[in-house]
Amino acid sequence: MTKLVRLIDQNRCMGCQACVSACAVENYFTPDAPWNVMVEYEVGTYPAVKRVYNTMNCMHCEQPSCKAACDAVGAKAISKNQFGVVLVDYDKCIGCGYCAAVCPYGVPQLNKSVAELYPGQGKSGAETIPYKDRHPTHRKKAKVVEKCTFCAHKLDRAVTDGKVDRIGKDQAYTPSCDLVCPVQARMFGDIDDPNSDVSMRIKATGAVQLKKQFGTGPQVYYALAEGAKS
Amino acid sequence: MKRLIAAVVLGLAMAALPAAAADEATKKPAAKPAASAKSLDPGTGAFHRVHTQKLKMSCDTCHASELKDVLFLRGAEVSASGPGPVDRAVCLGCHQAPAKPNWYGATK
Questions:
Q1: Higher-confidence residue: A8 or A118?
Q2: What mean pLDDT is predicted for residues B2-19?
């Protein structure tokens, strides 16, 4: 089995938001419904204070509360694929917002309207791809929920090309946010492979999941900075 | 003769079965989603109605007065004039099975 996870090292992150920008361009999220957000807060007591940068995207939980809620209301728009990636089917979503209400990480975004990434400046980059030619996760709709997909369009391409073993290694098969980090604070790969870079680094850094008390089993790990919240 | 009549009756009954099943299927209403886009409306939405009217819970049972939980992607959605965000840990007070969260139905 291949279980894809992400590692974010807060000890390396300097809050530049290159990952946020990369996600915006790759997935052209609308400004009101970001898929990746940089959360910042301070820890310590003056004068020994410091800033913690905690970039947040979907945690792709092993027991996703969003999916439980969606199934409970009968929409069944949320699924988990063979890599453990949690995806929303825009055609099935009824826009009730229950998934947004129950997610402990506040991830699902109920998109009120499909807006351009740069309003008033025309379409940019991937926005120019005709609707029918887009990956299903990029066929945006108003009044449905959307969120980070671990760049599912790239993962699907890896499957099509028979290059699943190159996920997290080749640019074409790795989420864009993980590619652009200038300080290598992000890593993506298969945690079921004990010899993968991400597995070894999670072990070496003692990285943990956030909000474990909710028991949802997130597939994003954080190497916490000293005093950081988890 | 008796065998012939029995065979005819059985044949008629068998032929009628799929038609009856089809009738039943057409009579059955399509599965209706239990929620709509208005479910989260503060005044009329089912989410609030269940907690405030049926369970008689006050607003501040769920809504914190300020954002305590910074590890929340949609932190920006909380308006200054609103009642504050819902601390998901409060939800788990009721909606949690012994081993893992079960967000709906486990309010025993």
A1: A8
A2: 56
Report in angstroms the alpha-carbon separations of A143 from A42, A90, A133, A186: 35, 9, 22, 31
Strand pairing report for A109-111 and A144-146: antiparallel
What does each C-alpha distance from B106 to A98, A215, B90, B101, B102 come to in angstroms?
A: 16, 15, 14, 9, 6
Of A37, A94, A214, which is closest to B88 when you measure between CB atoms? A214
- Residue B19 sits at the chain A interface (C-beta within 8 Å): no
Contacts of B105 in chain A (CB under 8 A): 72
Query: What ipTM was predicted for this assembly?
Result: 0.87
Given a cut of 50, whether residue B18 has pLDDT beyond it is no
CA distances (Å), B28 to each of A2, A73, A75, B21, B22, in order? 42, 19, 18, 11, 10
Residues of chain A with C-beta less than 8 angstroms from the C-beta of B88:
102-104, 214
SS3 A152: helix
Q: Which of A73, A93, A209, A216 to mutate to test the interface with B (most CBs of B within 10 A)?
A: A73
Q: Tell me how far the alpha carbon of residue A109 is from its chain's centroid.
A: 12
pLDDT per residue as tens digits for the range A152-193: 999 999 999 999 999 999 999 999 999 999 999 999 999 999
CA distance, residue A19 to nearest chain B CA (Å): 15
For the segment A72-106, what is each residue's pLDDT rounded down to a tens digit? 888 999 999 999 999 999 999 999 888 888 898 99
Q: What are the residue ranges of helices labelled H in A181-221?
A: 197-205
State mean pLDDT over B33-44: 59
CB A218, CB A209: distance < 8 Å: yes
Statement: residue A111 has pLDDT above 90: no
Backbone φ, ψ for residue A191 (5° rounding): -80, -15
Query: Is residue A114 within 8 angstroms of chain B, CB to CB?
Result: no
